[in-house]
Design a protein that fits this description.
Elements: H1 2-6, E1 10-12, E2 15-18, E3 25-28, E4 31-33, E5 45-48, E6 57-59, E7 64-71, E8 76-81, E9 87-92, E10 95-98, E11 101-106, E12 114-118, E13 124-138, H2 140-143, H3 152-162, E14 167-172, E15 188-193, H4 200-203, H5 206-219, E16 223-229, H6 235-238, H7 241-246, H8 262-268, E17 278-282, H9 295-314, E18 323-326, H10 339-347, E19 362-365, H11 386-400, E20 414-420, E21 423-428, E22 432-434, E23 443-446, H12 450-453, E24 463-464, E25 470-472, E26 477-481, E27 492-495, E28 510-512, E29 523-526, E30 535-536, E31 539-541, E32 544-545, E33 558-563, H13 575-578, E34 592-593, E35 602-620, E36 628-635, E37 640-645, E38 655-658, E39 665-675, E40 685-695
Parallel strand pairs: 6-13, 13-16, 13-17, 14-16, 17-18, 18-19, 32-33
Antiparallel strand pairs: 1-4, 2-3, 5-7, 7-11, 8-9, 8-12, 10-11, 12-13, 14-15, 20-21, 20-30, 21-26, 22-28, 23-24, 23-27, 25-26, 27-29, 31-40, 33-35, 34-40, 35-38, 35-39, 35-40, 36-37, 36-39
Helix pairs in contact: 5-11, 9-10
Length: 697
């Protein structure tokens, strides 16, 4: 018996083979269940959810939930061996969460731990490895498989030879549902597979697999890539009703895969119990003609919502899990349609780069040099060069998701500009190379504001700056001469603002000068003649506060002159204290809370000097009856206003609202227009307010 126990229910044989040419570590194993007669498993009438199959990957470092159907009569068993050959065995006690649904939580394991699970005589999971699990989603460019990319035969052969045990993958079958079914046993188009599983790698998403391959090459942790996508689908279909409501999206009840929330219901919600390391997203083409200008809300809202719901249900997914996406690539040569450029901008929440204040822990790949002239599929709107797309995404992921700061999040990006019209000087955040043999200068000028320049459906307002008018000056500086244009003040300048900017790989104008060769992503800025000096594109402007309680904390260079009536519960909650943030849990003496007033409450800011306000940051109190949902920003100077919806309620996270106004102001009133519904009276409670912008220099 002792000898039999020492085999620990099953045996693993590890083999380490290092290929001298690739440097890849190939780890092989074989498993076989060895019954232990001293332990008993009852005759459980159970089956597993279809997501679970042999060769799968579970998320390392956290608890994982395994669930299925039927009724469990007794415990389940598991047996594992770690990378250092320690053997672990134990029992799992299932919880019956409904009449026909059970679940268990697995013990936390490190990477490379291999496990077998036994749920009944006929229901087992074998050769399960612990690593990092990524959920890949979107439309057809995420769906595009390994058989439809450049050099596909060699890529598939390479995958089979060197990545069989290290990058495993699965694909959820297409399904739309009009209402959520949390316990749905969703179908799998491709059960968990390894690269040597016959024909499996050919059908796997190329971006998803190649991202996992690049990550594995760098960190040597098994990667589990789960693909859940559907070609031609809109972001609204992948978003929950909660996410859509936060962006005030109107209902869409079409009975197909593009109706609101139907893919969330059918392809995401059923696997919320899965613990994941992060998410990958490649979508946006289907929104260039549908809710295009709401994408800057719907995309960040979907990210927040996925993170929140996966973290709440799976318990092993971090509430700020890394989220990577691919900017829209290219399509038609010489197209003047502006759908792609505008969606690319909205993909970054109208900032131009990620991560940013509105999209924390988000990273991206910018593939605007992957034009594919081939007609039909693949080709055109589905470029075959998915290798460079996945590589750039993985570089950014290594930085953002894994903290390896030697890898870049993006190419060079301007962090300030100087105007001495007609000369615009951009200073970038890293060393760059401006290609003198690039196909275009890369820069475009429009005589209107950045929003007005993109009204309509074409880029005709964006006029190209000729190549001889742009030059590099030093390692981080680009100089653009706008003397060819009659009116410059009050206009805008953009970079690579075309559906297909260039024809060839690595022929965009600006790349980083390091070995990563990351391209500068698209950007656009508004030009004002009265901004003569170098102005940081974003810098925090604190405030001097004068409130009706007589408190005047000195901070810098603005004045809050008053709050709305009944502005405090008591002396702990004052206008001035709300601007002293950041607020910490339990710090109840620092807030502005109204007494008996929700909708209609306001704060008035009076700036000592004119300021271009780029962003207002609002932090709400934790209590459910004090959450504002819709805020109006009133420009007292000319009686105009704009509104925004808040999404972070009681979460100790800032709401970052980018303002569209580009002219300086001296007065700003922040007014509550709508509260989150609550069963009793609603009040306003802000824990922190910050103003970010640029002085009128």
């Amino acid at each position: 018996m002792k000898s039999k126990l020492s085999t620990f229910l099953f045996a693993f044989v590890f083999g380490y083979i290092v290929n001298s040419s690739s440097g890849q570590q190939n780890i092989g194993c074989r498993t076989g269940w060895i019954e232990n007669p001293t332990t008993g498993i009852g005759l459980n009438n159970v089956t597993l959810n279809n997501y679970f199959s042999n060769e799968m990957v579970l998320q390392r470092g956290v608890q994982n939930i395994i669930w299925g159907y039927g009724t469990s009569k007794t415990h389940f068993e598991y047996s594992c061996i770690t990378m250092d050959e320690r053997k672990i065995e134990g029992q799992l006690t299932p919880i019956q969460i409904s009449e026909n649904v059970w679940q268990v939580k697995t013990p936390i394991q490190d990477e490379w731990t291999l496990c077998n699970f036994k749920f009944s005589e006929n229901t087992k999971l074998e050769n399960v490895v612990y690593g990092d699990v990524w959920l890949c989603s979107g439309q057809s460019n995420m769906e595009q498989n390994m058989e439809n990319i450049f050099n596909s035969s060699n890529e598939i052969k390479n995958a089979e030879e060197y990545y069989n045990y290290t990058v495993r993958f699965a694909t959820v079958a297409n399904k739309f549902l009009n209402s959520p079914q949390p316990n749905l046993n969703q179908e799998m188009k491709l059960s968990w597979s390894m690269t040597t599983t016959p024909n499996a790698i050919k059908e796997m998403s190329a971006v998803c697999f190649l991202y996992g391959r690049t990550i594995y090459n760098k960190i040597k942790v098994p990667q589990g890539m789960v693909n859940s996508d559907w070609g031609g689908t809109r972001i609204e279909a992948w978003s929950s009703p909660d996410a859509l409501k936060s962006c005030n999206i109107s209902s869409n009840s079409k009975g197909n895969q593009n109706a609101n929330s139907v893919l969330w219901n059918g392809m995401i919600n059923p696997i919320l119990r899965v613990s994941v390391r992060g998410f990958l997203w490649y979508q946006g083409e289907a929104n260039m003609d549908y809710n295009r200008d709401l994408y800057s809300c719907t995309f960040p809202a979907m990210i927040r919502d996925w993170r929140s719901k996966f973290s709440q249900v799976s318990e092993g997914t971090n509430k700020n899990a890394p989220f990577g996406f691919v900017q829209l690539s290219t399509w038609r040569w010489n197209s003047d349609y502006n759908g792609f450029p505008v969606i690319r901008w909205h993909q970054t929440a109208d900032v131009g780069y990620v991560p940013n204040a509105k999209m924390l822990n988000v990273f991206m790949s910018s593939p605007l040099d992957t034009y594919d002239p081939k007609s039909g599929y693949p080709g055109g709107i589905h470029p075959r060069d998915k290798q460079i797309v996945a590589e750039r995404l993985a570089f950014a992921g290594l930085n953002t998701a894994y903290g390896l700061k030697e890898y870049p999040t993006n190419g060079p990006y301007p962090n300030k500009f100087t105007l001495n019209l007609p000369i615009v000087t951009f200073e970038f955040d890293k060393d760059l190379e401006y290609l003198i043999d690039a196909e275009i200068s890369g820069f475009y000028f429009c005589s209107e504001s950045i929003d007005d320049c993109d009204k309509g459906t074409t880029v005709e307002k964006w006029k190209e700056v000729t190549k001889e008018k742009v030059k590099q000056d030093g390692n981080k500086t680009i100089i653009v001469d706008l003397s060819d244009f009659d009116t410059m003040s009050g206009g805008s300048i953009a970079y690579i603002w075309r559906e297909t900017p260039v024809k060839d790989l690595y022929k965009l104008p600006i790349y980083s000068s390091d070995l990563f060769r990351m391209p500068t992503p698209p950007f656009k800025f508004y030009i004002e003649d009265n901004v003569k000096k170098a102005c940081p594109l974003t810098r925090q402007i604190n405030v001097i506060v004068t409130c009706d309680d007589g408190t005047t904390p000195q901070i810098l260079p603005a004045t809050m002159i008053k709050c709305s009536a009944s502005s405090t519960y008591d002396t702990r909650y004052t206008c001035s204290k709300a601007l002293q943030g950041p607020y910490q849990r339990g710090d109840n003496g620092r807030a502005w809370a109204t007494k008996g007033q929700g909708v209609g409450a306001w704060i008035h800011l009076e700036f000592n000097d004119p300021i271009v306000v780029k962003m207002v940051r609002l932090l709400q109190r934790y209590y459910s009856h004090e959450n504002a949902r819709r805020i109006r920003f009133e420009y007292v100077d000319d009686n105009s206003y704009e509104e925004a919806f808040l999404s972070n309620f009681g979460s100790f996270e800032w709401n970052d609202i980018s303002l569209k106004r580009v002219t300086p102001i001296k007065s700003l009133r922040i007014k509550v227009m709508e509260m989150v519904p609550y069963g009793g009276p609603t009040y306003v409670g802000f824990k922190g307010i910050q103003i970010i912008g640029c002085p009128n220099l």
